[in-house]
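Lab notebook, design round three. We kept the backbone fixed and only want residue identities now. Task for the bench partner: fill in a sequence for the structure below.
Input structure tokens:
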């Protein structure tokens, strides 16, 4: 462009020029008044959109609260609030699956089995 001796500014749109920028911000922005002092629009207010039913069968089950008891078909008592009792050591707080005796027993049996396999294979 320079060697053709053309005016660079002639390629720039007037929106990007300094004069336009200064003209746009020549009047300083007025502070906003209270919301109650805003002028009321004469046009009708914008209403929320109409509720349209979605395609498909509506859900029958209501979402339950987290602490809501679940109704069972048969008269089975709830296990809520009942203390767990171990059938192995007869202690409360854990059951057969979480019993330390059961765990140790399972561990020893499994280690014994591992040893047995190791001896047999080697
Ligand atoms: Zn136990």
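Proposed sequence:
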């Amino acid at each position: 462009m320079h060697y053709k001796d053309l005016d660079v500014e002639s390629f720039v749109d007037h929106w990007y020029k300094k004069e336009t920028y200064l003209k746009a911000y020549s009047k300083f922005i007025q502070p906003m008044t209270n919301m109650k002092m805003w002028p009321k629009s004469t046009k009708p207010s914008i209403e929320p959109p109409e509720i349209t039913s979605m395609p498909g069968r509506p859900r029958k089950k209501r979402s339950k609260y987290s602490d809501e008891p679940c109704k069972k078909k048969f008269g089975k008592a709830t296990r809520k609030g009942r203390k767990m009792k171990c059938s192995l050591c007869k202690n409360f707080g854990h059951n057969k699956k979480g019993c330390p005796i059961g765990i140790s027993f399972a561990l020893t049996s499994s280690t014994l089995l591992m040893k047995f396999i190791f001896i047999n294979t080697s």
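Keep this in mind before ordering anything: Residues 89-122 form one domain.
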